[in-house]
Every structure is written in structure tokens, then in C-alpha cells.
Design brief:
Number of helices of chain A: 20
Family (chains A, B): Belongs to the TPP enzyme family.
Oligomer: homodimer
Protein name (chains A, B): Thiamine pyrophosphate protein domain protein TPP-binding
Strand content of chain A: 15-25%
CATH topology of the largest domain in chain A: Rossmann fold
Number of domains of chain A: 3
Keywords (chains A, B): Thiamine pyrophosphate
Radius of gyration of chain A: 24 Å
GO molecular function (chains A, B): acetolactate synthase activity; flavin adenine dinucleotide binding; thiamine pyrophosphate binding
CATH class of the largest domain in chain A: Alpha Beta
Largest sheet of chain A: 7 strands, mixed
Organism (chains A, B): Methylobacterium nodulans (strain LMG 21967 / CNCM I-2342 / ORS 2060)
Number of strands of chain A: 17
Distance between the termini of chain A: 61 Å
CATH architecture of the largest domain in chain A: 3-Layer(aba) Sandwich
Chain lengths: ~525, ~525
């Protein structure tokens, strides 16, 4: 069957299990768009801004454990998507990132939209290829899927010159093989066993797959036998948690608190976690958070089979076959009028519905939400992974596309939410079941703290750069602009009422919470 | 006087004539922010999104003919600013683009926000340097200013590791020398004279400085003597036009119309313009727009002194000392009820106030606005230069900062405006005198045409990707969300009334024009 390159690529993507394309196309992508018409099995989700598309692909990948594709327009379109591709890279989310490009022969003319797309793509891409011909582009697509899925997972960027889309293609390419996760060597197990039997304090520092749910269950068995402690990374791509799961705290974000959390350990065993380092450098403070006397050892890197490594370690130390996690119980609703971090956290603990997906870009507001929600109904928690703000609303959009039967709750700092609020429109258009909670403190609160952390002594002009209250953002109006219903709440009882209402209905809803 | 690197940099920027910083800072930029407090003469303008900052710096540079600085947060912040830096690059706008980075010693730890900033910056930067020490950073800043101003003008990116900001600096660096615009060689004048005397049809194709105002006056004298025709590029960074100026048409955007506009010429003399090429490639159509038989010759490239070249050419052909431009007269207000491209263009021609700055990202809607506004009161017209949509609202913001006494009017396509609408908030915060007109056709209208141009035969799913009407964007609500008053108009008389009201008051105002 004769088909052009674009159609051969779309059919190859569908054959390789890629079912969703988050798009913000332009002229050079029109053949790809037209091919979507002719191919069954690829859902096209339009985004108003590329950061919405890439953030949605990240949220989708975290929940589906397989890639969506994006469709971006040349270098500037990729540029707009870079911030959330950076987050996806840090979350190790598989994404097939398709970037349209001028026809191969047209690039030499340096038309206005011409730019060095590869240079822009390289920093966020685990795999990068520019299509050379229409006959090769299906195989390029198959290779991109395999590269995205290759452990530990990543962004595979395929740059698609327009003529490789419109000229005659070669038909559907078969899926390319995906290497399995590597098994950690026996020596690594032995080293970890020695640490656990040393009689000295040991931390099991969990990240990536090891922290999700099953990994924590095995780690808890090891802890029960050996007395080791468990700690998650500061940011985690996905944790399945709530009632019946193993509770876990996270390494604190502030450097001094993080160092205090690690200072008593003599051994830190990394399982899917990377070396604990400060998010930012500060004058006079170290970058590495573990004490210098501590043996930091990677049992399993993110590309390894972390579950297998934990299970072998559990058996090697003679861990029990199962331990019952503690049951903190669901928090009750708080009383009083006051909206603050504590009361809001308690409301979340009480009201998060079973099966909910919480997309957390709370920044300063949400640092204490984690313990109080441990006793909530079972749910999944996704965090901002790469520190690039503006992920929350797009990530929720993608998670809702991946899991249409689960309620999605976005915990969104106001300053960060303003980067990519356009994704609310996609939520309305696709009738996604997402409740967005905006923590409205009308400032870049994190920067007020950071200004103090770096030792700077701010005056009016500096503080003015961190303030969002002149004029105040009117979030319900913004939401209405994008076709989403919204309310502002200023008291705790009103928040509880409106949140209950939003959770009981289907479809997108936004609540601006005055803090 | 002891000062840290950040303060030495800010003082150097002010000493070098950089008076405005469009900021969206993060933790790694806190010392720069703190330094703004201690230094007189640098206005800090906060943007909610980096594309707003870079687009504003572009608009500022076009009107001030000198650079503003930006302040962006690491690789992802730069990423968000890339689309409008791409436009600035194509407009040859001088910008000192400052990108914060982790402390030099912290980069090796690969903290979550670490990325290859240079790789991201290179495609949009005429000059690129990463600061190595606090003592060198003032000189780096002086070099960046000179590089931004070096003809033809460009984006100078200075990456600023946090420790080069907080450690002790070296004091203010003196301004670095800026090379003058090169004089075109006499041979180029001779070649152009020969073409003009050949008796064959000649086009003077004007861009960059040659198209602004003075260049057109000289070109018109040459045309009066020789019979040559004048034509501007499709996109122009800045044209000063309206009553009393030399009228000029632009090379049409659609390839077939552009080829038709050029097909009769045997000589095309480029003055500040680049080679006429198709914006996009299309199957079966050429990339170069000039006929193969045509001699295309660059009298002056953008880095040359184009005014000098035109004046020498005028003298060489014996052009008259002055010619009076035709006086088309200000259009009268149209009658009837119907809002369409023609009636809207006529309203603009009638109501654009003297001294207004028109920031044009009209895309499809505005292709016919140019002729009908030639007779308007004298004004300045800025266009989307690099094809990267989402420039209009930010560019207007920067132009208004540069020219507080001039009315700014943004002509904004709705699809494009949704990329960077956050800049409305900066307009409100800074009380900028900007009227934003949104052409609300609720679709990516340009892509409907392009889908046909590339020969694709769209179905429902493809057309759905180009539609913005489900749900419709409510622009007055969006504006209110950002603190700007807005109205939607659906009839011509209502549009005229509301536009008159908006032009008569000061401060930002938005009108959604139903088309």
C-alpha cells in the first residue's frame, strides 16, 4: 500500500503502542496532521502552547508507563516545550518527541523560521535523530519508540523534515527491540548486605521504580529485618501511596534540613535514587548532602531492575515475606475558619478520593502535605521532577488522558501555574476529570526564602520582583477564559464545600485557595 | 569600593546604557536581583513567563535602538524565552540576554535543574559566553553590550554562574568599543548603477534600516530618477510610516503571489534585505522566489551602513534632492455593521493616533492592513520577524516601556496571542499605554490555508486540530484574570466606539474583535 512518510510514521507509532499525540502543529507538520485522519488508533490532543504538550506527554508517560508522542513546530516550538521536556528527562519519562522541520532542501535558504533544532534538542534528549528521507522515517519512528522505552526511559527526539513527511514512504516499520532493565551484579547485593549487617546506621534511599509501591513493600521487609531506615528522594516521578501502602518521608528540600536528615547515617544505599545533592548551591554550604564519613553506595541505578535488586537483597538478609504497613488512618476534616498549609493539607488527607492522581507543583505551600496525606485513600502522587516550573497543569492533563477513570487533583502554586495555564483549555476541550487547586499567596514565595538563603539582603525593588499582588491574578477569570469553571475560596469551610462539589462532579474545575 | 560580581555587572550594564531589565528570576539569580536594589538607573520589569521577557526586550530594542537586558533562570527559563529570542535574532534586535546558572563548582553534581545551557543558547545567540569568575563578570557584561550592538545587532547571551554573582567582583568595567557599520565598497555602488541604467526592470528590495523611513526617502529619490520599483520584505522589524512618508508594499507571504510580484524583474538590488525565499517549502514549488533569469545583488547587507549606501547610489544616478511622497489621505471610517478584514483595516487607518506604535502579529487577518493604513497619521509598525508566534503582546510591552509617551496598539491573532498572554499582567503592573486588539476567528486560520498549500486533503480530525472554538476562548475574562480591562465586540459600530474609548484613555485595554 502506497503511503507518504507521515502516514508510514503515524502507522508505525500506532503499531508500536503509541496511542496519543499531544500536538501544537504548524505548517511544516501539516502532512503529519493529515495522516492522523487516515490512521485509526492515534488520539490527537490539541494544546495551545508547546509546554502544555510536553508536560502532558510527561504526565501520560508516568501513568501509562509508555510513551505518547508530541508534535511540535520547528525550533521555536521545541523551545517552548523544552522546560517540560527537561522535567520529563529528570523523571525518565518515555516520550516520542516529534519536531517538524523545513524540507531538507529548504534549510539552506535560511528562511525566517530556520534554526539549529538539534542544538536545542540535545540537552533534553536521550536519543536524537533528524529524518533523512521519507523511506526511512517509519524506521526512525520505530527506533524512537525503542529509545524512549530503553531503561531508564527518556525523551527520544525525532526531527521530521517536511519532505520526509510528504514524499513516498516505505510502509509500516516493525517495532524495534527494547533492551530489558539490567540485573544488578551479585557483588552489589553482597556490598549492601555487608552494610546492613555492619551494625552501623543504614539508609535505603529510594527513587525511580523502587519508590513507587512494590519497591517500598520490599524495602520495608528489609528494614524490618535490619533496622535500616527508608527515605524517598526530594522529588519523585511517581509514588503510589495512601492507606495500605508503606509510608515514606522525602529528603527535605532546604539544604540544612536535608543535611540534618542524613547526618546520622554511616551507609546510604541508593536504589533508583541518585546521589543526594543540594538543589541549588549556597555560599558556604556544600553541594553534597551526605556526611563525608558516609559510604554512599548505588545498589541499583535508575536503569537497573530495582525491584529484582530489592527482592534479592531481602532474601539475602533473610527478610520476612511480608510486613504490614502501619495504618495512620484517614485524617478527619479540620475545624475553624483559617486556610493555611496545615488545614489545607488535612483537607487533602480527608478528601482525596480512592484512585486519585495527585499532580503536585505546590512548591513552598505543599512541603508538609506529604505526611498528612499518607493515611488518605489509596492514590498516586506525581511531583515536579526537574525543578522547571509550569509542569502541574500540563502534567495533570496528560495523566487524565492516560487514566480517564481516575480523578486527577492538581496542587498548583500560583506563580508556577502562570507559565502554562493554557492547558486548562485542553482539559475543557477533552472534558478531562481534573480539579485544579491554586495556592494563591500572590508571590514567588520560594524566592523570598531563597533570597535569604543566598545571604542577600533585599530592599523594596528586589522584593517587588517576587510579588504577584499588583495587580492580583484573578484565577477564576483566567479559568473562565479557557472554558473552565472556577471559584475563589477564602475560608476553610468554603474550601471544603467547594472541593467536595468539585470532586463529586466530572470534568475540569479550578479552585483558587487564598493563603 | 568592594562589591560582589552581580553588583559589578549591574553597574557595568547601567554605565553601558542598559536601563531596563525584563526579569523572570529564580534562586540562582537572587544576587542579581538584590544588586538591582543597590544600583540606581536600572528599571526592573517583572514578567510572568520568560517569553514575555525576551519578547519585551525585542520590542524595546526595536524602538530604543539599544539593548535591554533580560534575566532568565537556568536552561529551562532560557528554553521558555527561546521562541522570542529567535524572533529578536531575525529582527537583529540588540539584547543582553542574562541567564543564571548553577555555581561553577555545583554543576558537576548534576542537580535537577542542571542542563547544557550553551547548547540551548547557541542557536539564538550572536555572542555567547559563560562567566568564569566574579572578577571577570563586569568585563563580560561590557563585552555583551558591545556584542549586542555590533552591526547588524543581535542577542548576546551571558550565562552567569551563581558564584560569579556572589563572590567579590572587580568594580565597574568601562564600555567596550562597538564597531561602526561597514561602508559598502564603491564596486557595489557601480554594480547597482549599471543595473539601474540597464533599461531593464529593477527592484530595490528594502529591509532592516533601509526600510524604516529615511532609507525609503532616499530610495524614492532613486526610483524617481531611474524608474526602479520599491518593495519591502514580507516581515520587517520596524517601519516608520503613515502620512508624509514614502509608501511601500511588502513582498506577499503566499509563495505564488510572491513569485508573481517578482517575476517581471531582471535585477533585484537588496538593501538591508535578505534573499527573497519562501517562508516554508511546498511540494513542487521552489524555495527561491526570484525568477532564475534575475540578477539578485546585495548592495548592502544588514550589517552595512545602508543609509550611506543609498545616498551614494542616489548621487551616482543623479537622483533629485527630494521627492514628495504621494498623499493618499487618511481613510474615513467605514459604515455598516460588518466586522471583517476590510472594515477593520479601514478603522485602523482612520483611528491610529499620531505617534502610535503598531505591534503586528495579525497573521492571516492582517495581510491587507498595510495599504489601507498608509494614509493614517504618522506611526511606527513592528512585525513578527522570525515567524515564531507569541511575540505580539510581549513586543508591545517592551515598546511601551521604551516609549512611554506613545500609544501602543497590538494587532494580535487569537491563536498566537495564547502563547504569551501573561504579558498583559506586566502591562497592568507597569500601567503601560497599550491597546490590544484580538482578531478572534477561533481557529489557526493560517494552518487551514497551509493544509491546502501542502496538498494535504484534511478530514474532520485534522481540521479539529486547527480549531479553537470548543470551548471558545473568552478573551475579556483572560484579560481580567491578568488585571486588564477588556471587551468583546461583534459589530463594526461597537468596535469603533470601544476602540475610540480605549485610545482616549491611558493604560492597558483589550478588545476581542469577533471575525
Amino acid at each position: 500500500m502506497a503511503m507518504n512518510g507521515a502516514e508510514s510514521l503515524v502507522r508505525t507509532l500506532v503499531a508500536g503502542g503509541v496511542e496519543v499525540c499531544f500536538t501544537n502543529p504548524g505548517t511544516s507538520e501539516m502532512h503529519f496532521v493529515a495522516a492522523l485522519d487516515r490512521v485509526e488508533g492515534m488520539r490527537a490532543v490539541l494544546c495551545l502552547f508547546e509546554g502544555g504538550a510536553t508536560g502532558a506527554a510527561d504526565g501520560y508517560a508516568r501513568m501509562a508507563d509508555k510513551p505518547a508522542s508530541t508534535l511540535l513546530h520547528l525550533g521555536p516550538g521545541l523551545g517552548n516545550g523544552i522546560a517540560n521536556l527537561h522535567n520529563a528527562r529528570r523523571a525518565r519519562s518515555p516520550i516520542v518527541n516529534i519536531v517538524g522541520e523545513h524540507a531538507t532542501y529548504h534549510r539552506a535558504y535560511d528562511a525566517p523560521l530556520t534554526s539549529d533544532i538539534e542544538s536545542l534538542a540535545r540537552p533534553v534528549s536521550a536519543w536524537l535523530r533528524t529524518g533523512l528521507s521519507a523511506r526511512a522515517v517509519a524506521a526512525d519512528g520505530a527506533a524512537a519508540i525503542a529509545a524512549a522505552l530503553a531503561p531508564p526511559g527518556g525523551v527520544a527526539t525525532l526531527i521530521l523534515p517536511a519532505d520526509t513527511a510528504w514524499e513516498e514512504g516505505s510502509g509500516v516499520a516493525p517495532p524495534a527491540p527494547v533492551p530489558p532493565r539490567a540485573r544488578v551484579p551479585d557483588e552489589a547485593i553482597t556490598h549492601a548486605v555487608a552494610a546492613l549487617r555492619s551494625g552501623e546506621p543504614v539508609l535505603l534511599h529510594l527513587g525511580d521504580r523502587a519508590v513507587r509501591g512494590e519497591g517500598r513493600r520490599i524495602a520495608a521487609r528489609i528494614a524490618a529485618k535490619t533496622g535500616a531506615q527508608l527515605l524517598a528522594m526530594t522529588s519523585n516521578a511517581r509514588i503510589d501511596r495512601g492507606a495500605g501502602t508503606v509510608p515514606i518521608e522525602r529528603l527535605p528540600y532546604p539544604v540544612d534540613l536535608a543535611r540534618a536528615a542524613l547526618e546520622s547515617y554511616r551507609h546510604i544505599i541508593l536504589v533508583g535514587a541518585t546521589l543526594p545533592v543540594a538543589f541549588f548551591a549556597y555560599p558556604g554550604k556544600p553541594s553534597a548532602l551526605a556526611p563525608p564519613t558516609c559510604d554512599v553506595f548505588a545498589l541499583a541505578n535508575p536503569e537497573h531492575d530495582q525491584i529484582d535488586a530489592l527482592e534479592r537483597l531481602a532474601q539475602a538478609v533473610g527478610a520476612p515475606a511480608a510486613v504490614d504497613p502501619p495504618s495512620p488512618g484517614r485524617p478527619s476534616l479540620p475545624g475553624g475558619e483559617r486556610l493555611d498549609q496545615d488545614s489545607v493539607g488535612q483537607v487533602l488527607g480527608a478528601l482525596i478520593p480512592e484512585g486519585a492522581i495527585v499532580c503536585d507543583e505546590s512548591i513552598t505551600t505543599g512541603r508538609n502535605f506529604f505526611p498528612v496525606t499518607q493515611g488518605a485513600a489509596p492514590h498516586t502522587w506525581l511531583q515536579l521532577s526537574g525543578g522547571s516550573i509550569g509542569l502541574g497543569i500540563p502534567m495533570a492533563t496528560g495523566a487524565a488522558v492516560a487514566c480517564p477513570d481516575r480523578k486527577v487533583i492538581t496542587l498548583q502554586a500560583d506563580g508556577s501555574g502562570l507559565y502554562t495555564a493554557q492547558s486548562l483549555w485542553t482539559q475543557a476541550r477533552e472534558k478531562l476529570d481534573v480539579v485544579t487547586l491554586i495556592w494563591s499567596n500572590r508571590s514567588y514565595a520560594i524566592l523570598r526564602a531563597e533570597l535569604a538563603n543566598v545571604g542577600a539582603n533585599p530592599g523594596r525593588k528586589a522584593l517587588d520582583m517576587l510579588s504577584l499582588d499588583d495587580p492580583p491574578i484573578d484565577w477564576p477569570s483566567l479559568a473562565r477564559g479557557y472554558g473552565v469553571e472556577g471559584r475563589r475560596v477564602e475560608t476553610l469551610p468554603h474550601f471544603i464545600d467547594v472541593l467536595r462539589h468539585a470532586l463529586a462532579r466530572r470534568g475540569p474545575f479550578l479552585i483558587e485557595v487564598a493563603l
